[in-house]
Amino acid sequence: MNIKPIKTDLDYQQALQRLEVIFDALPGTTEGDELEILGVLIDNYEKAYFPIDMPDPIEAIKFRMEQLNYSNHDLEQIIGLKSRVSEILNKKRKLSITMIRKLHTALSIPTDVLVQEY
């Protein structure tokens, strides 16, 4: 096991290649330990050099509704009136703190996504 910090794109590419080779290693083995460590190093490098922006709050709601096969009527049960749901989904009304809390609880959308400006 020859593990070193990932500092360059070449290091990153080599780490990905090695990860592919040992991907099916069993936990508790030398290669399993190497896999776990490489995974952490790769994850840290990707977070630093390939950050992913948070999604738009309304798009996150729509996406989660699609995942759960929810209709606008289902959303009405969470945040209220049909007209309010329509205004929210069309970005004509901002989410209130109460709505954010309810959406977080009902749809499991992180609050840091829901509180963003849109």
Task: Explain how this protein is built.
This protein has helices at 9-22, 30-49, 57-68, 72-79, 82-89, 97-107, 111-114. By secondary structure, it is mostly helical. The chain has 2 domains: 9-49; 57-114, 434 Repressor (Amino-terminal Domain), CATH 1.10.260.40.
Shape: elongated
Indicate the mean pLDDT.
Answer: 94
State the domain count.
Answer: 2
Q: Architecture of the largest domain, according to CATH?
A: Orthogonal Bundle
Oligomer: single chain
Distinct helical segment count? 7
| Strand fraction | under 5%
| The CATH H-level homologous superfamily of the largest domain | lambda repressor-like DNA-binding domains
Percent of residues in helices: 55-70%
What's the N-to-C terminus distance?
47 Å
State Rg: 21 Å
Q: Please mark out the parts with pLDDT under 50 across 5 or more consecutive residues, or reply none.
A: none
Tally of strands: 0
- CATH class of the largest domain equals Mainly Alpha
Largest sheet: none
| Order of SSEs | HHHHHHH
In CATH terms, what is the fold-level topology of the largest domain?
Answer: 434 Repressor (Amino-terminal Domain)
What is the SS-derived class?
mainly alpha
